[in-house]
Amino acid sequence: MARFVIDRSTRISLAVVVLIANLAGAAVVLVLAAWVLPEGPLADPSTVRLINLLTFCGYLVLAVPVGLLWGALRFRLPRGDADTEQHLVLHGPLRLVTVQAVLWGVAAALFVVLNAGWSLRLAASVGETIVLGGITTCALSYLLSERILRHTAARVLSANPPRQRVLPGVVVRALLFWALGTAVPVVGLLLSAVSALAYGDVSPGRLAVIVLTVGGAALVAGLLVTVGAARAVADPVNAVRRAMRRVQGGDLEANVTVYDGTELGQLQSGFNTMVAGLQERERIRDLFGRHVGRDVARAAAATGEVRLGGEVRRVAALFVDLVGSTTLAAQRPPAEVVGLLNRLFAVVVEVVEEHGGWVNKFEGDAALAVFGAPVGIPDPAGSALAAGRVLAARLTAELPEVTAGIGISAGDAVAGNVGDVRRYEYTVIGDPVNEAARLTELAKAAPGRVLAAGSAVDLAGASEVARWTVGDAVVLRGRGAATRLASPNDNPKPGEPIVETDGRRGTRQNLGAG
Predict the structure, then answer these.
(1) pLDDT tens readout for residues 220-237
(2) What's the sign of the alpha-carbon dihedral 468, 469, 470, 471?
(3) Which of 492, 502, 503, 508 is nearest to 451 (CA)?
């Protein structure tokens, strides 16, 4: 079934605006033709003027309803075709102008024929005035209609933004409106002067009145059309400029309504495409940062090329491993185990980031945190030791149903990209990482569940050293040298017996507290 492509309120607004513009234009033309422009020698000017006025009123009575009905039918869609609907809306102002142009053309022909019997000069003068007035009025109506239809144009363009120019370009449109709004009225003024010179029957006073009246009308009409054309260009550009300021301020939700079928519509659509790309890039950056750590993501984004390998850095490693994860997985549903691990790792990430470190990786039920790489910090060992103390306290308070061992070590390690240029990751490789992992095995059975290497305490700042006690040394599994054990002051001394965990035992050597 046929339907209108614009709603009732828009149709009413269009009808009112176009009707007012055309009535105003017709009134100006009537005044100029009847009382200003020279009509030549007439036997009974009053009778001629009266007949023209009656004809003018009668034509308005017929033309107004015909124009309103015809104009409304120009927006009637016979079938639900989205492309046709878009075409009707975008070309709607032009379709309305064709209706008005036909009515103004019929009026010009009618009044030329009506007045030709009395005076050819009068017929030509009236015809020229109607044609020129109609052209200017149609130009103004086009701009007003285009502005009213912006909301509807935005609706039909939302699903299919313009990829190419649908209407004449900005330059063509600007030149066209200059011609219609400025050149045409000036042409009317020139024709009046030519007529006065050709016939030589216009007094200087009458000529002055003609020039002032026609020139004033030309100025007003030209101003209205020029302002409308300028706004038609400036409004989309200003909308994009405001949205760009929002994007510069970090608001990637900024969007521009696309309602123009020229290059300006392509500009609006292109801006929205750009913002969508920025949103996608930000989502990828956020996901990348969540996978590898924000500091690593920023460092990778700032690097122009991928380089495998790394550099020796003074770092601290903190290893967290859940106690009894195999039994836990066997006794609880998988979803419950995953939820528990997520709660555990949420605390780990929060504590580590608060102390300037980053979680390098999650390994099943364990996590490795690094301090001092990729971004250096003043005291990586002290930060790791402080994070270990806080983490142990929070896990005890917030997750009493689980137990996790925490091992901490510090020293020189290689930090960089490992893998292949097609698939690599940023990681830290070195003795501190291995030592922290081995300490975690002992920490699972140690009082307080936290053990640190004496080397980490030696490298830490004085304020953090005072919170730790260094005791005996043990030879950790897989290592040849002994490792001095340190624990927080509020825990039992590391010299107390260490029980066997998961079949592993540390070999104790009495090397003293130093």
Answers:
(1) 777 777 887 788 888 888
(2) negative
(3) 492
